[in-house]
Amino acid sequence: MKLRVETASERADEAGLSVQKRSLRFRSDGTFTIAQFADVHNGGDAPEDRLSLALIERVLELERPDLAVFTGDLIRRGPDARAQFAEVTACAADAGIPYAFVFGNHDSRKDATRAELMEQERRQPYCVAEAGPESLGGVGNYTIPIEGSRPADAPAAALYFFDSECNAPDWACIDGRGEWIGSDKADWYAAESARLTERSGGPLPALAFFHIPLPEYEEVWQSRVCYGSKYAEVRCPALNVGLFAAMVEGGDVMGTFVGHDHSNDYWGELAGIRLCYGRASGFNGTVVGGLQRGSRLIRLREGERGFQTWIRLADGTAEPSQPEHLPEQSSHS
User: Fold this and answer.
1) Range of the domain at 292
2) Most buried residue among 15, 19, 86, 273 by CB atoms closer than 10 A?
3) Reduced to 3 states, what is the DSSP secondary structure of residue 211?
4) Cα 106–68–143 angle (5° rounding)?
5) CA dihedral of 35, 201, 183, 167, whole degrees rounded to 10
6) Tell me, what's the pLDDT at 188?
7) Are the C-beta atoms of 2 and 83 separated by less than 8 Å?
8) 266 inside domain
9) Do the beta carbons of residue 234 and residue 213 sit within 8 Å?
10) Does residue 288 fall inside a structural domain?
11) CATH code: domain of residue 178
12) CB neighbour class for 29 (10 Å; exposed up to 12, middle 13-18, buried from 19)
């Protein structure tokens, strides 16, 4: 039997309501909070799936964020990719919370393409994700501004989303690593960043979300003080195409947030950018090292560069800080 999830859009249609997209805005107290959910791997109503969805619902209930971001691998093998995907995002929609997402390597399915899943979600009133330019690799490369707290305010921050794909060309696939974030995305980001900077009179405080980590995630663990745990290999592209360098040059991105490596949850700062893993949210994916499933929370403050981040666990408790890890290459400390 295929899963069937009634969407918020369908409920709106039945009530004779139009589907209107929401703009994101800082609260009156100057804060904007994001809940990141990584690697949910919803497979279709197995006991593990119900635990994963309950985790999302509990985090959203406890934290009441302004935005939920799913950083890839929302689904895995199962009876109905479209329904499995919708079941995950409905956790946010049913809570009245806008959501965005990027695709992961497990979201590519024979019975539902990335484009089809994006089109399905774009019809939902709480979805703020976009397909992005057709000239770029993948689906879901887009930018979302966060407006200032007053109605007439211009954008006060920006969020970048990238489809990191997993289809490296043969010449870039080394030792079986198919992870790949093409240089076209680095060029697109540089143009978007320059456009927003010019319009705003300076770099906006910005965050970036994608599924597969950059090579710099390994570098920061080896050479800088980090906070959190690393129990898995950093499965990043075998070749570096320069997206991180473009972000450093752009001067707006303060932090990047990824998933993919379920047993890593650390963050560290390199060249002024905090490279952050989320906490694995799905009970279907393998997690070692005793890490509990959970969600990474991120809080921005209007007019400030920087952000707070903490972990909220499946049992409802919070981890306001993570253990310190000293660099393994002391010469770079």
Assistant:
1) 23-332
2) 86
3) coil
4) 80
5) 20
6) 98
7) yes
8) yes
9) yes
10) yes
11) 3.60.21.10
12) exposed
Q: How many domains does the chain have?
A: 1
DSSP conformational letter for 175: T
Please measure the distance between the N-terminal and C-terminal CA atoms of the chain and give it in whole angstroms. 56
Residues sharing a CB contact under 8 Å with residue 77, sequence separation 6 or more, in sequence order: 43
* Domain contains 281: yes
* CA 304, chain centre distance (Å): 21
Mean pLDDT along residues 148-170: 90
- Residue 167: its pLDDT value, please? 82
Angle at 13 between CA 139 and CA 119, to 5 degrees: 10
Model pLDDT for residues 248-304, shown as the tens digit of each residue: 999 999 999 999 999 999 999 999 999 999 999 999 989 999 999 999 999 999 999
Asked if 30 and 303 touch (Cβ cutoff 8 Å), the reply is yes
Question: Six-digit token pair at 105?
Answer: 């390597």
> What pLDDT does 16 receive?
37
CA distance 164 to 210: 6
Count of CB atoms within 10 A of residue 323's CB?
A: 10
**What's this model's pTM, rounded to 2 decimal places?**
0.92
